[in-house]
Amino acid sequence: xxxxxxxxxxxxxxxxxxxxxxxxxxxxxxxxxxxxxxxxxxxxxxxxxxxxxxxxxxxxxxxxxxxxxxxxxxxxxxxxxxxxxxxxxxxxxxxxxxxxxxxxxxxxxxxxxxxxxxxxxxxxxxxxxxxxxxxxxxxxxxxxxxxxxxxxxxxxxxxxxxxxxxxxxxxxxxxxxxxxxxxxxxxxxxxxxxxxxxxxxxxxxxxxxxxxxxxxxxxxxxxxxxxxxxxxxxxxxxxxxxxxxxxxxxxxxxxxxxxxxxxxxxxxxxxxxxxxxxxxxxxxxxxxxxxxxxxxxxxxxxxxxxxxxxxxxxxxxxxxxxxxxxxxxxxxxxxxxxxxxxxxxxxxxxxxxxxxxxxxxxxxxxxxxxxxxxxxxxxxxxxxxxxxxxxxxxxxxxxxxxxxxxxxxxxxxxxxxxxxxxxxxxxxxxxxxxxxxxxxxxxxxxxxxxxxxxxxxxxxxxxxxxx
Length: 467
Hints:
single chain, 467 residues, globular, 22% strand, MBL fold metallo-hydrolase, Oxidized Rhodanese, domain 1, POD-like_MBL-fold, metal-binding
């Protein structure tokens, strides 16, 4: 029997390929999908079936892309009308060699969510694995707010029923294979475990021991952020994403090209470190470090205007391009040839951001001209504490609250370490704020320098972030 988990870094997306007897099935494939064909070829198998556990909201699904070269059948939950594939219902079974995959309808995260119960009939009729999509994770369960606030209670009740009537009654030894790991936006607190089982989750996952009323109230009170790109993911994944065939080829642009393109609305993303960005950058660019691309590009980049990357040495840009493709940004167009050095060697204008260390901020914390802005997730702020007197706006919501930030003060922005702070500083600068300082080290450095974080209740600028 073939079983292999394919992880997409940073997005924390898990997909799977299983097979036996020369046949294979892929579950929740990503858009850059050649890896599944490579695995099947290595094992001497043909991919005959592709399952989507749900339409997904945080990445572009890859089933259409994978079906093109393999001819495999695409199967998904029947409660949603998709523009492709075939809807499946509770109890239907599909064979892949000696393997049997049974459909369990498990709505709650989305209305059409399904789970797949796998048995290896050559060995036993007992369940071996269950692919739970976004219904059950290691240490967590799926979010229930994405259908809209007016349906949140209904979706929470559905998820409770799906968990307790369909998934948890499975044998304790059943291996749980969720669609996401730690760090995904599809859960609130997913555990950092490669594998888990039904028995282990029943023993350790606190959400599963709650009564129905307690569970629903817990899900109703969750505060989770929804990146703007999620609406585009829903549309693409419901209708069927456009085929890309291969990763896009990036065009090399000169500094003069970049300047001309920016006049026409091109989106320039600086993927260097916060310190590099602070030391010098192209005016009007957005700072999103490489590893932060899939987490934050969806808040600030649109799907129409071309996207150009700025790096120092332009190494392994294909890896960065994959992040854009997985989120549907097919408008990724090029990069600055020669890196940022080419920009300043042409004598172009260089903009700088201020940087402070924790001792710098501590020395100036009582200065009335200093306005400290905390851009962390609100849950981190409440859990870990905050710098005395700081104000809060989540980094993804800055543009919605610009009028609440004083233009006549020094804005000291901070996050956990300094990376989201660099993004926030670049957004503020782009909107005309000229005295912006990024606290390098963030709250991690602040605590390491033995400065206090407080946890008492405080009214924040963004007290009720969209859920």
